[in-house]
TrEMBL record:
One BP annotation, GO: lactate metabolic process
Official protein name in the record: Putative iron-sulfur protein
InterPro entries: 4Fe4S_Fe-S-bd, 4Fe4S_Fe_S_CS, FTHF_cligase-like_sf, Helical_ferredxn, LUD_dom, LutB/LldF, NagB/RpiA_transferase-like
One GO molecular-function entry: metal ion binding
Keyword annotations: 4Fe-4S, Electron transport, Iron, Iron-sulfur, Metal-binding, Repeat, Transport
Domain annotation 4Fe-4S ferredoxin-type: ranges: 309-379
Domain LUD: 73-293
Signal peptide: none
Length: 480
């Protein structure tokens, strides 16, 4: 779920901000996706009604999630699918590795899947001698470059064409010596590289965008056709599905298949929408397994404020509008789930108070609210961020207090007694004379601010305005 060894967000962000090439790549890519999304969303007059419908379907499903999951299990089993339940990443990885072992498989092809990234499936399979080949183009770039994904939809968004060409030339067996950075050539090289793997693989691994309970149908939407190849050619198909992906009825897809493509790729519909319901003799995989994954989702479900994060349909719209993500990129979040949704989803799934990196994520936001406005299922990410910040604070009570906690406690003591407050106000005039030695500057509207305070006050004035204290308090002025 989180990348081992990653520093807390502030430290990682500071490093990312110094990488000018990264910032150019991100600004270009997110700007392009934002513009495409805005254009296709503007075509839908009832867009807000669709958002409300999507949120309502998800919330109603989560309220009866146990019932819908049992319905899904029964429908899948009736269609010849073996259903496995996994409480955590280790159990899920063991199930997939066991299936590969039972079939004597030493390689699998994979459809792009956030759930399998979350549980570290590729690394777990490698420990069992099984190679997992990513077939999504952006995932392939990340894999060949021995890199980490930095975006939910476009994992290699931090790379430009020239960088991708070099990755292919170094890591792709049989890459043309004269390969250029032309997108068509790069895609052609990837196609040649993957074709033999599609034809050779006996087992495939997928996730699912949706799981329809009433019919036992899994749905994957994608843009390249690699998913269709993985879902139809191999003999064995294993799908790792988060328990929050269930929807009760087939009709519910009508809402989500309008919301998802417009919010993710800026398209009216995805080029490939694949739906499969069990085993069909002589057509497609002849053995199917579904791993229903918890891995912290029931913990998130128990959080009355945070459970709305389980509405997420992994469109990445919140990443593309986030000013913090655009400047730092996904790696700074140290997680498979970056950006605003990652800043709430990771602490909810993993729990706060466990490590410094996870606890830093709710603070990786300016709370501007752009993510909520873009979210197709109306997840109020700023509300959850503030909620999780309070949870982080509560988790660290009782130990050595942080400087911020000391400052807040002091302010509480001071402001809770009128006499103490009046005494402090008397000192403001003296403070004004002392502090103005460090310089003043004008703010918009004619207000004055201090230019810079000595340490530790400089940690504030280096990045924020500090209005100069008044020469006379209100109480003194009133008496006079």
């Amino acid at each position: 779920m989180t990348f081992l060894g990653m520093p807390p967000f502030p430290a990682a962000a500071r490093t990312a901000l110094a990488d000018t090439q990264l910032r150019r790549n991100l600004a270009h890519a997110t700007g392009t996706i934002r513009a495409k999304r805005a254009a296709v969303v503007a075509e839908v007059a009832e867009w807000e009604e669709l958002r409300l419908a999507g949120a309502a379907i998800k919330d109603n499903t989560l309220r009866r999630l146990d019932e819908h999951l049992l319905t899904l299990e029964a429908a899948l089993q009736a269609r010849g699918v073996t259903v496995h339940w996994a409480r955590d990443a280790r159990e899920a990885c063991d199930v997939v590795a066991g299936i590969a072992r039972d079939h004597g498989v030493d390689e699998v092809v994979k459809v792009k899947s956030m759930a399998t990234q979350e549980i570290g499936l590729n690394e777990a399979l490698a420990e069992h001698g099984v190679t997992a080949w990513e077939t999504d183009l952006a995932e392939l770039v990340v894999q060949l470059g021995d890199d980490l994904p930095s975006h939910i939809l476009v994992p290699a968004i931090h790379r430009n064409r020239a960088e991708i060409r070099e990755i292919f030339r170094r890591g792709m067996a049989g890459a043309p010596a004269d390969l250029t950075d032309d997108p068509a050539e790069l895609a052609g090289a990837a196609r040649e590289h993957l074709r033999e793997k599609f034809l050779r693989a006996r087992m495939a691994v997928s996730g699912a965008n949706f799981a329809v309970a009433e019919s036992g149908t899994l749905v994957v939407v994608e843009s390249e056709g690699n998913g269709r190849m993985c879902l139809t050619l191999p003999e064995v198909l294993v799908s790792v599905v988060g328990i929050e992906k269930v929807v009760p009825e087939w009709a519910d897809l009508d809402v989500f298949l309008q919301l998802l493509p417009r919010s993710s790729t800026g398209e009216r519909m995805n080029p490939y929408t694949s739906a499969w319901s069990g085993v069909t003799p002589g057509d497609g995989p002849q053995e199917m397994h579904v791993v229903l994954l918890d891995n912290g989702r029931t913990r998130a479900l128990a959080d009355e404020v945070g459970r709305q994060a389980l509405r997420c349909i992994r469109c990445s719209a919140c990443l593309n509008v986030c000013p913090v993500y655009e400047r730092t990129g996904g790696h700074a979040y140290g997680s498979v789930y970056p950006g605003p949704i990652g800043a709430i989803l990771n602490p909810l799934l993993k729990g706060v108070g466990t490590d410094e990196q996870t606890d830093s994520l709710p603070y990786a936001s300016s709370l501007c609210g752009a993510c909520f406005e873009a979210c197709p299922v109306r997840i109020d990410i700023p509300e959850v961020l503030v909620h999780l910040r309070s949870r982080v604070v509560d988790a660290h009570r009782g130990g050595t207090p942080e400087p911020e906690a000391v400052a807040m406690k002091t302010a509480s003591w001071l402001l809770s007694d009128a006499r103490r407050l009046e005494f402090a106000e008397r000192g403001l005039g003296l403070a004004n004379r002392v502090l103005t030695r460090f310089g003043r500057r004008l703010l918009p509207g004619g207000r004055r601010a201090l230019s810079r305070l000595p340490w530790p006050g400089s940690r504030w004035t280096d990045t924020r305005d500090l209005p100069a204290p008044p020469r006379e308090s209100f109480r003194a002025w009133w008496r006079r």
